[in-house]
Amino acid sequence: MTETKLQELLEKGEGTQIEFKAASIGLNKDAFDSVCGFLNRSGGHLILGISDGNKSISGVQENQVQNILDNIVSSANNPDRLNPPYYLSPEVLEVHGKKLIIVYVPESSQVHATRGKIFDRSQDGDFNITRNNELVAQLYLRKQNTYSENQVFPFVQVSDFKPSLFDKVRALVRNIQPRHPWLAIDNEELLRSAGLFKRDMKTGAEGYTLAAVLLFGSDECIQNVLAHHKTDAILRVENTDRYDDRDDIRTNIIESYERLMAFITKHLPEKFTIINGQRINLRDNLFREIIGNLLVHREYTNPFPAKLIIEAAQVRTENWNKPQGNGAIDPTNFSPYPKNPVIAKFFKEIGWVDELGSGIRNTYKYLEFYTPGAVPSFTEGDVFKIVIPIDKTVEETVEETVEETVEELLRLFRSDSKLTVSKIEKQIGLSRRGIEYHIANLKKEGKLKRIGSTKSGYWEVIDK
């Protein structure tokens, strides 16, 4: 968090999404009442180091800062203190020589309790609703009806998940937080800690959720749960009616993210700049935001396929959505709403997305350097759409990529006339559909000819 953002929160004062605590020599006993209330309501910021009386900056004693940080992280992952657990990432900010601890708590798609008590949040602060059966029931129903990622599948087992993904996730979190709790627990405990196992309050059934299946499920498991699940990556520059390259992705969203980033890397050029003294890869940082949004904020229960399409002068994405409004999003007057809080939180833990609402701000920031003068568009509706304009340099690079691919195919056929599509796919990394499209186009243009049958024949390159 920046000092400017902190100042905005201080000026706004306490309310549904802001809570101040003194915490000068230790974590307040009721701090997790606020954490619980934020999780159950609409998220918010817990700011430690603000005096309770006049709301001035009193600061946290420096020799207590690390103890408080450790207390927050360990308590958030202790089911006796917060149930279900929820990993929090507090940060320290120094203002006027005084240390503050800021804890951003997103809205959760689950109902949480602290020390056996369920708290909700209002303008007046935290209030205990544990014994109010009607309010508790309303809270559970609101969470379940709003977030399809919570749908429980009682017959999904740990054996239905890809073991390699757990290793990948631990490697990612280790790079961000060497003492992350997920590093010291087994796979089943990790799934529970991430909020991916829960009880359906309507039926009483317990099991792994849709979010768990989407994040860790084997391809077979995902297709059994969501037969329509797919994400389409398309390059459409020369052949605007169909495509020049395509990746039809029908796997878990962790590997989907990697394949989408690889598709962007393959077809769009790198650009670098210096931001805050660091050399930044603009392409990767820009499209990290776009792809993160495409996967995290998608309504997966709808069969509409998500799409990432690279065209001559723009890149655009489409995904089915649960809209909170309609029309173009104004970044200066935008209230972010979590579509899949559990998945969003998981992606944040592994470093693939930032705080809720940062995606649009980061897209504007990086696009200004990647394509100077360009303005992205975000359109809310049943289908959420993003359009990223790309400049002439990028357009020319995309066209050159297509030309280079065609030349590489012809070179391969000259060197091995019996080359198969599968072998080409391994050698140049182009998708099978993309290769088949280019071969068909080369045959149509009279540059390539098939001699003999499909199995025993060979290719002849026709040099004119």
Question: Can you describe this structure?
Answer:
The protein is α+β, with helices and mostly antiparallel strands and 464 residues long. The protein folds into four domains: 1-145, Methyltransferase, Cobalt-precorrin-4 Transmethylase, Domain 2, CATH 3.30.950; 147-227, no CATH class; 231-390, Heat Shock Protein 90; 400-461, Winged helix-like DNA-binding domain superfamily/Winged helix DNA-binding domain (Arc Repressor Mutant, subunit A, Orthogonal Bundle), CATH 1.10.10. Helix content is 38%, strand content 20%. It has 15 helices and 20 strands. It has helices spanning 3-12, 31-40, 65-76, 133-146, 163-176, 187-193, 210-216, 219-225, 253-267, 282-296, 341-349, 358-370, 392-415, 421-428, 432-444, and strands spanning 18-21, 44-48, 91-95, 98-105, 119-122, 125-128, 152-153, 197-199, 206-209, 231-236, 245-249, 272-275, 278-281, 306-311, 314-320, 327-328, 377-380, 383-389, 448-451, 458-461. The strands form six sheets. The chain has a seven-stranded mixed β-sheet. A four-stranded mixed β-sheet has the order 1-2-4-3. Strand 19 (448-451) and strand 20 form a beta hairpin. Helix 9 (253-267) packs antiparallel against helix 10 (282-296) and helix 10 packs antiparallel against helix 12 (358-370). The longest helix has 24 residues, at 392-415. The model has no long low-confidence stretch (mean pLDDT 87).
